[in-house]
Amino acid sequence: MATSRSRFFTPxxxxxxxxxxxxxxxxxxxxxxxxxxxxxxxNQNSQTAGAHGPVLLxxxxxxxxxxxxxxxxxxxxxxxxxxxxxxxxxxxxxxxxDLSMAKVFSxxxxxxxxxxxxxxxxxxxxxxxxxxxxxxxxxxxxxxGNWDLVGNNFPTFFIRDAIKFPDMVHAFKPDPxxxxxxxxxxxxxxxxxxxxxxxxxxxxxxxxxxASYREMNGNGVHAYKLVNAQKDVHYVKFHWKSxxxxxxxxxGEVAKVQGNDYxxxxxxxxxxxxxxxxxxxxxxxxxxKPEELKNFDFDPLDATKVWPDVxxxxxxxxxxxxxxxxxxxxxxxxxxxxxxxxxGIEASEDRLLQGRMFSYADAQMYRLxxxxxxxxxxxxxxxxxNGNQDGALNSANTTTGVNYQPSRLVxxxxxxxxxxxxxxxxxxxxxxxxxxxxxxxxxxxLYRSFSRKDRDDLIASLGGSLSSADDVSKHIVLSFLxxxxxxxxxxxxxxxxxDLARVQTMAAKLVD
Length: 512
Prior knowledge:
The protein is α+β, with helices and mostly antiparallel strands. Helix content is 30%, strand content 16%. The chain is built from 14 helices and 12 strands. It has helices spanning 13-28, 60-70, 165-172, 183-190, 197-204, 251-260, 264-274, 327-332, 351-368, 441-449, 452-466, 471-484, 486-496, 500-508, and strands at 48-49, 83-92, 110-119, 134-142, 145-152, 218-219, 224-227, 233-242, 280-288, 312-322, 345-347, 429-430. The strands form 2 sheets. Strands 2, 3, 4, 5, 6, 7, 8, 9, 10 and 11 form a 10-stranded antiparallel beta sheet that branches. The chain has a two-stranded antiparallel sheet with strand order 1-12. A hairpin with a 2-residue loop joins strand 4 (134-142) and strand 5. Helix 3 (165-172) packs antiparallel against helix 4 (183-190) and helix 12 (471-484) packs antiparallel against helix 13 (486-496). The model is unreliable at 1-27 (pLDDT under 50).
């Protein structure tokens, strides 16, 4: 994220806080409501079917927030606006038929793909040197239909519940009053979100400024379910490993690169494909049996967590070998959505994924219309057979009078093997935090995995942004960092000139 503040008005720090607070509370103080004026009972947790069940469609606060958020921009994407795409193939070298009935995982299967890389927060014409997570979204045109693996270069995300997604993005986006970036708003938000500590650490490390799309890994982030022909269920996480290696910029390199090329990542990918130096990634999965989920000190379905010590199993290799013929028609109109699944691949009960299943498809329908799946870049490689009809820009050639099912005149059979797997549920509907949070340990593990130089860059980068936060938010975030690793928290405290004793006292009260 960019860290610039207003250049025409820079009041003293205390006055900045007073001005923002006074405006916020004088105009917006009061009970939180939905758009119809009804009070909101819980804006922190989606309603679920018991402690471990999926998210419920009846949670109107969740649905309304996501619907409104998806419609905030026309026509640029609200997030992932700045993107670069490429075509290629995925070859399954090590079959997963023991885990999944999906044909894409059959040994020797070659599947066409389209990948869209992107910046997450910043707009369509923003410099690609800005600190930001990077999207890594892959559309597999499989023999079972299209499967979209929509992920990022980071293996974790900032939040664990989709009900907070609009709030998080609003905090990252520019101040709506000035359209200027303001780090203090971000840390005001994240001081309330301790589970973000690991992903914030990743963001402010040099991984937040990749040197190229070719030289970064990708991750599905969420846990998914693989279901085999016997209806056995396993939970998996997907990981792309770059065969080009990993390369990131240091903060000192950013200005030089941006001054020469603000599209360095796009130029790098396009030029390498154009000259035949095709980038490659190997796909791996981590696998857990359902009964193994209880063996962790944290909830493995929490998107803010990695699965340490769970081995990687290779699946296959992706090669990107063709640039788009028309960037708008392909890269900008491709409609990626986690809801695009095929039999053998299902969503887990991950609360963030459950919300994204609705939100991404809804956003694409808003941007591109109800018939966005008919666009060539989005259409599966075989004919569609259902009763969906009409809508703007419908190019389908429908000649039958039977636009319903079931029918004896034009039978459309249901496929027994495509039925969803079953999940045993118990308990009451609820809006409660997950039971095993462990918000700080993995952030500390990540920090300690860095070299001394990378730790120093992280401390300087995060400290530079955190210094603009209000005093309370600043020290709360510092306590998160100190809880993750005392050296980490102490280093950033020095950069922001915080009160280390206060930080230590606050950190001692935190429970991981």
